[in-house]
Design goal:
The chain has helices at residues 3-16, 18-24, 36-50, 57-68, 72-75, 78-81, 94-120, 124-134, 144-167, 173-179, 198-212, 226-238, 242-247, 251-266, 278-291, 314-332, 345-348, 363-367, and strands at residues 187-192, 217-221, 269-272, 296-300, 336-341, 370-378, 385-396, 402-409, 414-417. The chain is of the alpha/beta class. It has a 9-stranded mixed beta sheet, sandwiched between helices. Helix 1 runs parallel beside helix 3 (36-50). The radius of gyration is 25 Å and the shape is globular.
Length: 418
């Protein structure tokens, strides 16, 4: 995430949440911010907080008009600071963003020191001395009292949200039992080789959550059009082959499809099919969470996402995408299910995929809370995929791992337990 985004988020959190101001305002200062408008806005927030004035956008605006008069649009534009709270729905990750603000400032000062050292040919002792003044130790301990309180709060929170954990799930009973459902803030990776059926698993999970559990789900598809997804959903629900629905539907098929469409019409399923960056996923998900409701996000698939910041190589890009998705999950307090390709080696070596096969980045394994790997054997002569396969829980940060046997139903385009 870029520095300017972090600055905007921190300022937005300070404006919107009194408890964030109370907890962090004394730890912050103007020098942490880069742009003049950011420094001015922070100074205003700090001044109003010290005067014990409730902070709202109109109050900030009034304060700045008194101080800067007709120059306000140049010094600190109201159109800018009024928009900073638009996408914020929770203060849960305030500490994370404030820590990142300090990190950016520290990195910048380290860079300045190294540039000076190069320019003036400093020796090692001079460089170390300058760096010691900048780099602050980041280790912090907590005592048993704080640890017990944190743990107790986590258990209470789990009890309150237990029903949601059970509802937000895959829809395959044995896997759901093994995982205990998908929890808010989790990043779940579903990996498979092309054509094995990642989209099928993602869509049937979306159907299960929206139609069986009455949850709200955002489905970001970067591979299929909205119409193609609609046909796929109809096949899943009716059992009518999607080719038949597209090219030769009979009257009874149309009647059956129409009945299902009424159900889909009422479902809280939100589909986006554009070329998508992680910043778009964050923004659209925030809008849904704020204006409607959002219980889970599904992304199909990671390797097609455009990173918010273009990096030199694909491994770095996928690492950034992976980290961004995890941050979005934590920020929105919803599970994100991200589909991913795996490397070809599993096919070439005629074996099921493993964690190290996740394509283009070890960060996918590191950032994820759960990794599910889907596998079906390929006929060595015809190249056709078997309808029988396995779905493995290869990583589960909070519980057991294992595999189940699954059967792919080609007419319903979905997986069923054997």
């Amino acid at each position: 995430m870029r520095e300017e985004n972090i600055n905007d988020i921190v300022l937005g959190l300070l404006i919107k949440y009194k408890k964030v101001r109370e907890q962090f305002i004394n730890d912050l200062n103007q020098e942490l911010f880069e742009l003049e408008r950011e420094k001015v806005l922070f100074a205003t927030i700090q001044e109003l907080t010290l005067q014990d004035i409730d902070i709202e956008i109109p109050i900030i605006n009034e304060h700045l008009i008194i101080k800067y008069k007709e120059n306000i649009n140049t010094v600190c534009p109201p159109s800018w600071f009024a928009s900073l709270t638009d996408s914020l729905i929770s203060s849960a990750n305030a500490k994370f963003y404030i820590d990142r603000l300090f990190d950016f400032r520290e990195e910048k000062r380290i860079k300045e020191v190294l540039e000076l050292a190069t320019k003036h040919s400093w020796n090692t002792e001079q460089i170390e001395s300058a760096l010691q003044k900048i780099v602050k130790p980041k280790f912090k301990y907590i005592d048993g009292k704080e640890l017990s309180l944190l743990t107790g709060n986590a258990i209470d929170d789990a009890a309150k949200k237990g029903e949601l954990y059970i509802k937000a799930s895959l829809g395959l009973k044995s896997i759901d039992s093994m995982l205990g459902g998908f929890k808010p803030g989790e990043l779940i990776i579903i990996g498979a080789r092309p054509s094995v059926g990642k989209t099928a698993v993602g869509l049937q999970s979306a159907l299960h959550m929206t139609m069986s559990k009455n949850l709200s789900v955002a489905f970001f598809s970067l591979e299929m059009s909205a119409q193609s997804l609609g046909i796929r959903l109809l096949s899943m629900c009716t059992g009518i082959n999607q080719r038949k629905l597209m090219y030769n539907p009979q009257i009874k098929d149309i009647e059956k499809a129409t009945e299902v469409l009424r159900t889909i019409y009422e479902a809280n399923l939100y589909v986006a099919t554009n070329s998508i960056k992680t910043i778009n996923i964050r923004k659209m998900s925030h809008q849904l969470k704020k204006n409607k409701k959002l219980d889970a996000v599904i992304v199909d698939y990671i390797q097609l996402i455009t990173p918010s910041v273009i990096k030199a190589n694909r491994t770095e890009q996928v690492s950034q995408i992976s980290r961004d998705l995890k941050l979005i999950a934590e920020e929105l307090e919803v599970p994100i299910i991200a589909l991913s390709q795996v490397r070809r080696e599993s096919d070439q070596e005629k074996r099921p995929p493993k964690l190290s096969d996740l394509r283009e980045s070890g960060s996918l394994e590191q950032d994820s809370d759960i990794v599910l790997l889907l596998h079906r054997e390929r006929n060595p002569i015809t190249g056709d995929l078997s309808e029988e396969g396995t779905l493995s829980v290869s990583k589960n940060r909070h519980g057991e791992t294992g595999s189940i046997l699954v059967h792919f139903n080609p007419d319903k385009v979905r997986y069923e337990e054997k």
